[in-house]
Amino acid sequence: MIISSINYWAVFVTGILSLVLGFLWMAVIWAKPYQKQMYGNLDQLKEKATKAAKIQSFVLYILVSFVTSIAFAVCLELWKAGGQAFDYNGDSLLNAFWFTMLLTAGYTLPFTLGKKVWQFKSWLVVGVDTSYEVVRFTMLLLIFWFWK
């Protein structure tokens, strides 16, 4: 079964690294412009965010990161295996990269663009969120690809 062939140590590492990357991307590299555009008045946000709410957010995000890592690992294994059936090179890292970009676009753009369309956030927020997802999924690909 494909679920049993997943490297769960890689899932654990990529789940944690997704948090680290997210922190660096949104709270260090893009901190001031992103936080201002995403949240507005940070002083009001800090007053509303209790310690319990912050812990709950952290726990939920790490769980979602692990689920994302598992789902990506399954998709990558299916893509590799499909190479023989559908006559493409499933052992090519370059092909796997383009497959990853297609997955990233298909599964993240509706959410990142939704921030502009439905929440009326700035294009900067869309750009930062989308670029984070591209970097994150590339990181997932490289870790799952090379960690045997």
UniProtKB/TrEMBL annotation:
InterPro entries: DUF1761. It comes from the Bacteria. It holds the Pfam family DUF1761. The chain crosses the membrane at residues 6-31, 58-81, 93-111, 123-147. Keywords: Membrane, Transmembrane, Transmembrane helix. The keyword Transmembrane applies. This is DUF1761 domain-containing protein. It comes from Paenibacillus pectinilyticus. The lineage of its organism: Bacteria, Bacillati, Bacillota, Bacilli, Bacillales.
